[in-house]
Amino acid sequence: MGQEITFAEISPATFTAWIDRFMAVYTAAMNPPDRQLAGREQIMERHAANPAFRALVALDEGQSVVGFIYGFHGETGQWWHDMVAGALATADGAVAWLADSFEIAELHVLPPWQGRGIGRSLLLSVASGRGERTAVLSTHDRESAARRLYRSSGFTDLLTGFRFSGGDPAYAVMGAVLPLRDPRPSAS
Ligand SMILES: CC(C)(COP(=O)(O)OP(=O)(O)OC[C@H]1O[C@@H](n2cnc3c(N)ncnc32)[C@H](O)[C@@H]1OP(=O)(O)O)[C@@H](O)C(=O)NCCC(=O)NCCS
Hints:
This protein is of the alpha+beta class. The protein contains six helices and seven strands; from the N terminus they run βαααββαβαβαββ. It has helices at 12-17, 19-30, 37-47, 79-88, 118-127, 145-152; strands at residues 6-10, 54-59, 65-73, 101-109, 134-140, 156-162, 171-177. A seven-stranded mixed β-sheet has the order 1-2-3-4-5-7-6, with helices on both faces. β4, α5 (118-127) and β5 form a beta-alpha-beta unit. α2 crosses α3. The mean pLDDT is 94. The protein binds coenzyme A.
């Protein structure tokens, strides 16, 4: 695995054409139940049509996708946005987090490639130069590599123990004021 990794931004059209590749990375990284896979694929397709959609991939030397991230401008009428806005409405002042937000929908790295800085590079790159005031996302509400990555990049918990629907696990909704923090020693 001494391979060079390259990072590339891809268009919404390429993203849509590559969804099977992203599903393979998602499945290996998250190990979701089979019944969720078709739904997740449709959600990704729908997301690619959202405003200011931005996707980045990490590629190995054979041009295989080893990681990806994407997000878009959050707006009323989007499912995640409306669910979180409803829940935040009861938390003091928290609704301002969504007023001008970049919603990061997915970030996954293939297990053999995890822990090498790829996730952090994808996160910092996708948020770099965005015009929104904040970045927001949700992640399983437990201590995890993802949670540590987000915290060290400037994200704080906006909601914890949040369930999008009855059968779902508990999620944490996190937000950061842009630009994100880069804690790497070489960062200026
Ligand atoms: C979360 C994920 C995308 C991070 O990507 P990655 O390439 O492994 O992460 P990086 O190597 O860039 O590490 C970034 C930070 O994550 C945290 N991290 C990474 N691996 C970790 C581990 N094994 N244990 C604890 N924290 C870890 C650390 O805070 C690390 O920063 P540090 O190296 O300065 O300590 C990746 O681990 C993954 O795909 N996990 C499974 C899927 C998932 O949870 N996706 C996010 C859904 S919201």
